[in-house]
Amino acid sequence: MKKFWVKIIPYNKNLVTAALESGADAVLIPIDYSKKVKELGLITTISSDGDLKLGRDVVETIINSKEDEERAVRLNREKFLIVQTGNWKVIPFENLIAQRSGLIALVKNFEEARLALGILEKGVDGILLDSRNINEIKKTSRLIKEGMEKIVLQRVKITKIVPVGMGDRACIDTCTNMKIGQGILVGNTSSGMFLVHSESVENPYVASRPFRVNAGGVHAYTCIPEGKTKYLSDFKSGDCVLIVDYKGNTQIGIVGRVKIEKRPMILVEAKVETQNQIISLVMQNAETIRLTKPSGKPVSVVKLKRGDEILGYTEKTGRHFGMKIEESILEK
Question: Has residue 321 got a pLDDT over 60?
């Protein structure tokens, strides 16, 4: 996950509070101020006497020439490297991203942060924002924390809906109230998933739970940030999950709780016409469990029929411990 740090030199209590409320991962502060920061909230401090120590855990460099860039490449690769550039904002980072990790770009505003995060598609590993503007802190935090990933969803056609008996299903309760058209991607295999809709739909029988996705069987995969996947059964409080809307926009959700209970289950299968591929998911058999139509409208699994179009997601690479690998893997 991308790091979001805020530089607060000279020290300013209001800026520290803004960084805390925006979900910043750390603040870079003057020496002797860590205690004051900790009085305001729990956050990592970066300073000569901070949680991350300048010179030991974090090093800083300025790049104004090719020689500066080459020197930056040689700096200790086990440390975070804060990089400040001159007039050249992209080329130095392109070269550094290709050669080392732990890069933190020092930027002045939201636009510079967005540029640094998109370089070579991969982007830098984090942002250090040097701004006294609280709105810039909030905007930049949303840029990083709500995710920059854009997922390409596909129309898939239902081919089978079959009750399969009792099983353990997992509800993922997040710390985010999702809207109509939002949910998480879940599938029996990592190569094919459905957009399972959040329980944000009002109905006369059960109160809506917009923070919840009744996701599927405990064995199923879902997407988490940085292009990885995770079994539903492996989630615990504090983990991150990727929230996706029907347009493919993403944001990071924090898992508050996972509820695993025995329920009647149903197998849903659909065909990806463009790839002649079948994707599937075993999920709870109940009216309030919904998939997502291409329009963003939720549709109950008990109302699905053959030929209906819903949203799915596919990928060609295999997975090992949730990470993509170029390997031939057959899952069925």
Answer: no
Checking phi first, is residue 318 left (phi over 0); if not, alpha (psi -120 to 50) or beta? beta
Whether residue 29 contacts residue 8, with contact meaning beta carbons closer than 8 Å, is answered with yes
pTM to 2 decimals? 0.68
Query: Pairing mode, if any, of strands 80-85 and 52-53?
Result: unpaired
Structure tokens at 269: 């299968």
pLDDT at 329: 58
Q: Is 318 exposed, middle or buried (0-12, 13-18, 19+ CB in 10 A)?
A: middle
| φ/ψ (deg, to 5) at 139 | -65, -45
pLDDT digits (tens, 9 = 90+) for 230-260: 999 999 999 989 999 999 988 888 999 999 9
| Helix/strand/coil percentages in the chain, nearest 5 | 20, 45, 40
Peptide bond into 30 cis (omega under 30): no
Kindly write down the DSSP assignment for every residue of 106-138, as one continuous string.
Answer: EESSHHHHHHHHHTTTT--SEEEE--S-HHHHH
User: Quick one: pLDDT at residue 317?
Assistant: 56
CATH numbers and ranges of domains, the chain = 3-145 (3.20.20.70), 154-318 (2.170.16)
At residue 91 the predicted structure's pLDDT band, cuts being 50, 70 and 90, is confident
